[in-house]
Amino acid sequence: MDTGERTPAARLRAQRVAGLLIFLANGFCMGTWVTRIPDFKRALALSEATLGNVLLAPALGAFLGMPAAGWLVARLGSRAVAVSSGAAFAISLFGLAFSRSPLELFLALTFFGVSNGVMDVSMNANAAEVEEAWGRPIMSSFHALYSVGGLAGAAAGGGLAHAGVTSVAHLCLAAVAALVLVALLSGWVRPGVPARDLPKNPFALPPRAMWPLCAIAFLCMFGEGAMADWSAVYLRETLGTSAAFAATGFAAFSVAMAAGRFLGDGVSSRLGPVAVVRGGGALVTVGLAAALVIGHPVAGLLGFASVGLGLSCVVPTVFSAAARTGPTGASIAAVATFGYLAFLGGPPVVGHIAAATSLPIALSLIVVGALAIVLLAGSIGGRPAARDVERRSGERVEA
To answer: What is the pLDDT of residue 197?
Structure first.
């Protein structure tokens, strides 16, 4: 699809919309798979232990895909990698649909994880390039669309499962829908510029200048992972609520995070990225600490909501800062890999500490991490530089 005849500003708007929908497609595929995990557990007669082992495959795939994605973006440009990996991620749902043994499911999930890891890095690299041309913070809006996509995928999955649609039919329909969307968007996604100097080793440690950004991403996603796995347990077992009330804990966190991402760009434009990260960390520190001290179910909900709102814009802001620190693809790959490590490793750490002490004490690690984010926020740097209109051929959008 040729967008060459459009004005530079209109073309940039179209590129932003295409990027937003790429994020939506990614979240939709993820939400689709999550709703069908119980069906595969029953269909393949998987024990809890076997299912846990099988579900390590997406993490393994992502750890392989994310560092490689930085090299691919540097070599091919972000659009080529984002579109191709987006198509691969959609196609991976077919592999999941037709898995008939634990081994087949493990292999399919490994490909699912690799393609998701590559897509995650490349679509964020592309979003950072759009943001740079836009001239003001817009990264949070992309992550907000990911959240919307995840909710849409989960809602559609729940509705189709309730209607009796099989997991094979559901996953195949979702794969076709996502594949068509990515194909339609391929000509509108912003063309990425390959790097002049390719990274020699995609799996090397990031430069020292990026360590604070990696630390912030690690601490933020540690909190996100802990909320996903332990918020309901805290309400149910520590505070003695009903199962229905306990389920609202993660919902409060998720809704607050989505809302924060929709609001984040405007706040960052007014206050700057450092203030967004520092303020978010402070909100988590105060809100969750108060909730754990009070020990009441309503306080717990408010505390979890404060974590969702406080952390909502941290990772998008860190990705933008990483893109300004070094080569876009490699920098975002490094930050994303450290963050993903914490997202997966955080919940088991919380569990072990809770077993040795108590769950409130274990969850206080999130408070400590948020306080560290406040202290590290200065490493984010200033706002993305506004682009001179004439120097950028009128591409910058004032909106």
So the answer is: 65
383 contact partners, CB below 8 Å, separation of at least 6: 136, 137, 268, 269, 272, 273
Q: Mean pLDDT of residues grouped by 10 in the chain (399 residues)?
A: 64 95 94 85 86 84 88 90 97 96 95 94 93 92 92 85 90 96 95 70 74 95 87 90 85 90 92 95 97 96 96 94 80 87 84 91 96 95 47 47
Q: Of the candidates 343, 171, 315, which has an alpha carbon nearest to the alpha carbon of residue 257?
A: 315
pLDDT of the residue at 202:
63
Domains and CATH numbers, the chain: 8-185 (1.20.1250.20), 208-380 (1.20.1250.20)
Provide the 10 A C-beta neighbour count for residue 280: 27
Q: What angle do CA 97, 53, 174 make, to 5 degrees?
A: 20
Residue 151 identity: L
d(CA 179, CA 112): 14
**What is the CB neighbour count within 10 angstroms for residue 258?**
21
Q: Give the model's pLDDT for residue 395.
A: 55
Terminal C-alpha separation, the chain: 25
Contact present, 395 and 12 (Cβ < 8 Å)? yes
Record the tokens describing residue 138, joined without a space.
Answer: 């817009």
Nearest alpha carbon to residue 227 among 363, 339, 340: 363
Both structure tokens of 83: 């579109």
Q: Are 127 and 15 in contact (CB under 8 A)?
A: no
pLDDT value of position 383: 53
CA–CA distances in Å: residue 38 to residues 30, 55, 151, 186, 303: 15, 12, 18, 34, 29
